[in-house]
Specification:
The chain has 362 residues and is of the alpha+beta class. It has one domain: Catalase HpII,  Chain A, domain 1. It is built from 8 helices and 9 strands. α1 packs parallel to α2 and α1 packs parallel to α8.
Length: 362
């Protein structure tokens, strides 16, 4: 492989209209927040509202990583407490028969390094990921359009969403068999209803990686997880099927994943600003930099949801300078994520604080 490209500020190219698009994104997210809070009498995240698994874990960084991988928080070997939150992407809490992409939020605790100016008062590094290598929108402008579609469906009858989801799943499978899948159709309910613990998750967007730039990936590696890869869950008559399935696996634990990075080595083939472009894994393979382990535990319960869904936040911009988010989509996430957390805090009357340990309710 060619050498990784050194990080520099001029890797990003900011559109002159980006702030206008971000304002539209904020508006759509606020619409989702207000609609759901009114319907549910409780505030949820504007995206990834419904959690399906909430796990305490540890992340171990090995010694003797190659220099190009021993960057940022991964420059120091050791063990960190971590918290995993598995979710699905709508801003409303839906029956699991409405199948949409899965998300994984990872919070790594007790990391060292200069904090981003927007980071919370803690020593945590957050990673937010989706079970697909490409984002559904290329830029803040496209993201504003996609989010407007989601906002328009937020207050629709759930029975209609179930019918739409079943139809879209059929369309998506036909597309995958011919010209390839559609991220937009998946986002609107056409994603396969897969087991989250068998999925590979991607940051989809690039981040600074110390002296370099990288995308992140979390891959299941223990046999109890790899056996679930591609497994589709029948959620008919089971509104919380994903929670039930995750809980059943985690009660027997343990579960293990690898955290991997894909370094930027070719600016043309690996664009920073277009999040829909997949960085070719054959030309630019992901490399392992840490292992995540979660022991046998409850996969989800109301007490964990209160501790994490209500009293905790995950955000791309919560972390250290050496892992600063890059590209249009990441810049567009900054203020909406902050607004979503403040809205939940105000409406629910529940202070949101950064955890110091990964101890969760049993």
């Amino acid at each position: 492989m060619s050498s990784p490209i050194p990080y520099s500020d001029d890797l990003e190219i900011i559109s002159p209209h980006e702030n206008e698009a971000i304002a539209k994104i904020n508006e759509s997210m606020h619409t989702i927040l207000e609609t759901v809070a009114e319907d549910e009498n409780h505030a949820y995240r504007a995206v990834h509202a419904k959690s399906h698994g909430i796990l305490e874990a540890s992340l171990t960084i090995p010694a003797n990583l190659p220099d190009e991988l021993a960057q940022g928080i991964f420059a120091l070997p050791g063990r960190h407490d971590a918290i995993l939150r598995f979710s699905t992407n709508p801003g409303d809490v839906l029956d699991d028969s409405v199948s949409v992409p899965c998300g994984l939020a990872l919070k790594v605790l007790s990391v060292e390094g200069e904090r981003l100016s927007s980071a919370y008062d803690s020593k945590a590094q957050d990673f937010v990921m989706i079970n697909g290598p490409a984002f559904s929108a290329s830029s803040a402008d496209d993201f504003a359009h996609t989010l407007k579609l989601l906002a328009a469906t937020t207050d629709r009858a759930e029975w209609a969403k179930k019918l739409l989801s079943a139809t879209l799943r059929g369309i998506e499978k036909a597309l995958e068999a011919t010209v390839g899948g559609s991220a937009t159709i998946q986002t609107l309910g056409g994603a396969p209803n897969v087991h989250p613990l068998g999925e590979t998750f991607y940051s989809q967007t690039p981040y600074r990686y110390g002296n370099y730039v990288a995308k992140f990936q979390v891959v299941p590696v223990s046999s109890n997880l790899t056996a679930l890869s591609g497994t589709e869950i029948d959620a008919k008559g089971r509104p919380n099927a994903l929670r039930e399935e995750i809980d059943a696996v985690m009660r027997t634990g343990p579960a293990e994943w690898e955290l991997r990075v894909q370094l930027l080595r070719d600016r043309d083939a690996q664009p920073i600003e277009d999040a829909t472009v997949i960085w070719d894994e054959e030309r630019f393979p992901f490399q392992t930099v840490a292992r995540i382990t979660a022991g046998a535990q409850t996969g989800w319960n109301d007490q964990r949801a209160a501790a994490v869904d209500d009293a905790m936040r995950f955000a791309p911009w919560n972390g250290v300078v050496s892992h600063r988010p890059l590209g249009s989509i990441n810049r567009a996430r900054k203020s909406p994520y902050e607004h979503s957390a403040k809205f939940r805090e105000r409406v629910n009357g529940c202070p949101i604080r950064e955890p110091r340990t990964a101890d969760l309710p049993v």
